[in-house]
Amino acid sequence: MAAAMATTPVVGLGTSTLSSPNNRLNLSSGFLKSPVTVRNPLKVAKASGGKFTCFERNWLRRDLNVIGFGLIGWIAPSSIPAINGNSLTGLFFSSIGTELAHFPTGPALTSPFWLWLVCWHLGLFLTLTFGQIGFKGRTEDYF
Question: Is the whole model's pTM more than 0.70, yes or no?
Fold first, then answer.
């Protein structure tokens, strides 16, 4: 009985039959790509100077254009006087001056310096992040 079940044809697979786990079936289809040997980048000889790494050597792909344009792209709009006639950059820089007036003592937790610090840097880092995504996406033909 077990021998008969080992070669039972399976409906939907054409002439394929069930076999024991020791025998491997090589099913192919027009929807699947041809078998390609997948190389493990950790085992490639002399990858990254002979060191085993999981990432490309230049994973950040740093470009100074992004930093320059991102900084200009954030300072320009944050310098528009939109907060009671003051700009975010102006409020942040003036709060730095106010806090430096009593230098050895740090800013109090209720000081508006913290609000301007967080808002200004949050905007800067978002601008730099989206600038990196957009600039690299354009140069590498993602969009």
Answer: no
Euclidean distance between CA atoms 21 and 6, whole angstroms = 10
Tokens of 91: 């409020």
Which two tokens mark 7? 């070669």
What tens-digit pLDDT sequence spans the chain (143 residues)? 555 555 555 555 555 555 555 556 566 665 656 566 666 655 555 555 566 667 677 766 777 888 899 999 999 999 999 999 999 999 999 999 999 999 999 999 999 999 999 999 999 999 999 998 888 888 878 77
User: Which residues face 86 on adjacent strands?
Assistant: 83
- The answer to whether 134 and 126 have CB atoms below 8 angstroms apart is no
